[in-house]
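Researcher: Sequence recovery benchmark, item below. Answer with residues only.
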């Protein structure tokens, strides 16, 4: 895989995770607010990891 493909995959995963986390937060919030917050935090951790991976991919593929 080249840099462009990995960048697109990581950006796609980041976007999907953000959207899914926010939707899940608003669906679960009325019933169990603590669990909604937990799910949103887990989604945030995943997004942070994807962004770090994106930085490392761009750093390692300098040409």
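Model:
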């Amino acid at each position: 895989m080249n840099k462009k493909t990995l960048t697109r995959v990581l950006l796609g995963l980041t976007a999907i995770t953000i959207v899914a986390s926010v939707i899940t937060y608003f669906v679960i919030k009325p019933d169990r607010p603590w669990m909604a917050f937990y799910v949103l935090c887990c989604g945030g951790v995943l997004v942070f990891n994807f962004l770090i991976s994106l930085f490392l991919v761009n750093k390692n593929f300098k040409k």
